[in-house]
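Is this the right way to post structure tokens for a design question? Let me know if I should format differently. Anyway, here goes:
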């Protein structure tokens, strides 16, 4: 229970003439902060807390070693007040009030990074990275965060990496898009820079500008439109020239011809509204304009971070508002969502496709079991998606069967690694056998497979490009149009598949059943023709066909494209078949399964 004096007062950053408080990502700075006591002051035995983001790599504020990073000097002009400062936890400094009470209007000065090593900022560019203050006014050990704690801007570094993205699928005559984005070495979108972008591989059925000049105001990214005029698979070599340097890259493949349309999405990410970096607006901007995604959902935690969403309805309303503002019908589907962060049953992210978007918290006794969550979602256009089911940081309790109307898919790859199966490359940390996606299929659950980022670095769709995460995750959605109804329908029919980040194109069918569909047992009893087509982003290492417990390898090493038919015999009811694709560069993809019933 909060005392009236908890959370009182205000704090600000003190800037000398010409100072901005800005710092480049992963570099040192020094900040002078002032706290001024509110009307009720702070009792003797009360405390002021200073906390930088505990989720990344800000130096922990400390008062012990002047020559070490994070050294913090704490002082006051209030006569008779003594300050007893000590580091209480990662990134958290407690300053206890002794001598006498700190009265209204009296101030405490905090110099963070006061020693020669300064204080190190986190590696992710963001505006308003918060330097949090909290106040325990009466000294009972309960503190309250100052909602308007000051923040500083963390700036990106120099361009180090170019990402070039093409539309993945088109018919001859369609408009296609090409997006160039320059990133620093931590995958932050860069600031103003001038660059020339040249495309190689045009003509012969693909029309796009051959040369693009980037002006400083474009901040290293631009999307241009062109046209596909003939069937085929296209990849463009891209050369970016800036300051006399060149950055080279290659686009993902564009497949022009028949076949379903593929839309790329990242439906799982975190911003500074829970334990991630950056604003919701910046997250959607990165998703659309840097990662060139077609759809994205920002899913901050219901009850995790420094200020909880479920205790602050206005913050949830702001998140929903940010998704609505970023949405552009037919072009970019921005969806509101949150992460139901149950430490008992496993995490699920909830994504809304309709108007109604309530926050159903895992801490709310009405919604604190998976069954209750689903009951709350069933009447809505919503999905609940279990993620990192196999473990680190939290495994899914598969004893509770998924309700396929609300939970048709499982996220098997993200920044945490693979949860597909123990024999998968790049398994996530602390795996729990029996909890993988394949284990859920063996229980008879007819789940499709998706990937999504679960990035906390603000880099929607591209978590895998930075040094922090071993893998990323994307979902490929096979839908005719990019509308909420069409995309939700594709999920409900498991017309989706997973990748670890690259835009690998997959087609897969067994008999009449395409990926995600059910093959009647009567048809599967004899010989079934399996059709496999893979258009990779970089050369292939293996394509594996998973039939229950058996793994068949298809010969494809060093190929960019693979297409074949094969015969599967005597598939049994309850069995499932899916593809696992591995590129030589470590990129992975998994089809959704075909289920035998
Ligand atoms: Zn989670
Ligand atoms: Zn998450």
């Amino acid at each position: 229970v909060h005392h009236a004096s908890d959370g009182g007062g205000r704090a600000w950053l003190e800037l000398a003439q010409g100072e901005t408080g800005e710092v480049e990502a992963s570099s040192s700075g020094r900040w002078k902060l002032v706290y001024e006591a509110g009307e009720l002051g702070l009792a003797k035995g009360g405390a002021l807390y200073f906390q930088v983001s505990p989720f990344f790599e800000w130096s922990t504020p400390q008062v012990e070693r002047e020559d070490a990073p994070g050294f913090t000097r704490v002082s006051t002009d209030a006569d008779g007040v003594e300050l007893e400062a000590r580091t209480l936890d990662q990134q958290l400094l407690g300053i206890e009030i002794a001598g006498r009470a700190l009265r209204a209007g009296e101030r405490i000065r905090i110099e963070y990074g006061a020693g020669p090593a300064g204080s190190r900022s986190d590696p992710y560019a963001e505006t308003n990275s918060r330097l949090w203050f909290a106040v325990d006014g009466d000294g009972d050990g309960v503190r309250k965060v100052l909602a308007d704690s000051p923040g500083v801007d963390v700036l990106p570094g120099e361009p180090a990496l170019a990402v070039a993205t093409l539309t993945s699928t088109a018919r001859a005559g369609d408009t296609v898009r090409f997006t160039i984005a320059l990133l620093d070495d931590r995958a932050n979108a860069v600031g103003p820079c001038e660059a020339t972008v040249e495309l190689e591989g045009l003509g012969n059925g693909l029309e796009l500008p051959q040369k693009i000049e980037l002006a400083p105001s474009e901040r290293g990214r631009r999307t241009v439109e062109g046209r596909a005029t003939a069937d085929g698979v296209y990849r463009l070599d891209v050369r970016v020239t800036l300051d006399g340097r060149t950055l080279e890259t290659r686009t993902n493949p564009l497949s022009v011809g028949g076949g379903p349309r593929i839309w790329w999405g990242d439906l799982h990410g975190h911003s500074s509204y829970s334990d991630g970096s950056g604003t919701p607006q910046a997250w959607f901007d990165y998703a659309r304009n840097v990662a060139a995604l077609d759809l994205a959902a920002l899913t901050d935690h219901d009850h995790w971070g420094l200020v909880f969403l479920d205790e602050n309805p206005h913050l949830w309303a702001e998140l929903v508002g940010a998704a609505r503002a970023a949405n552009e019908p037919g072009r970019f589907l921005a969806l509101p969502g949150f992460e139901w962060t149950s430490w008992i049953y496993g995490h699920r992210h909830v994504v809304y496709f309709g108007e109604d978007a309530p926050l159903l918290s895992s801490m709310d006794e009405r919604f604190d079991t998976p069954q209750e969550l689903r009951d709350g979602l069933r009447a809505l256009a919503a999905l609940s998606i279990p993620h990192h089911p196999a473990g680190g940081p939290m495994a899914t309790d598969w004893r509770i069967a998924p309700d396929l109307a609300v939970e048709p898919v499982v996220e098997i790859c993200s920044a945490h690694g693979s949860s597909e199966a123990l024999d998968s490359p790049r398994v996530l940390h602390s795996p729990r056998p029996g909890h993988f996606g394949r284990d859920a299929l063996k229980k008879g659950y007819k789940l499709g497979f998706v990937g999504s980022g679960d990035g906390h670095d603000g880099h929607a769709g591209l978590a895998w490009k930075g040094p922090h995460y071993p893998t990323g995750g994307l979902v490929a959605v096979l839908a005719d149009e990019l509308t909420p109804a069409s995309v939700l329908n594709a999920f409900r029919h498991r017309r989706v598949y997973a990748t670890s980040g690259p835009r690998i194109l997959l087609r897969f069918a067994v008999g009449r059943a395409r990926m995600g569909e059910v093959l009647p047992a009567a048809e599967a009893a004899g010989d079934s023709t399996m059709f496999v087509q893979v258009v990779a982003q970089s050369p292939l290492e293996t394509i594996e066909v998973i039939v229950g417990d058996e793994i068949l390898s298809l010969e494809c090493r060093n190929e960019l494209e693979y297409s074949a038919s094969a015969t599967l015999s005597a598939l049994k009811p309850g069995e499932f078949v899916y593809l696992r694709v591995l590129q030589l560069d470590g990129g992975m993809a998994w089809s959704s399964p075909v289920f035998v019933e």
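Format looks fine. Someone answered above. Worth noting: The mean pLDDT is 96. Residues 268, 270, 339, 454 surround zinc ion (ligand 2) (CB under 6 Å).
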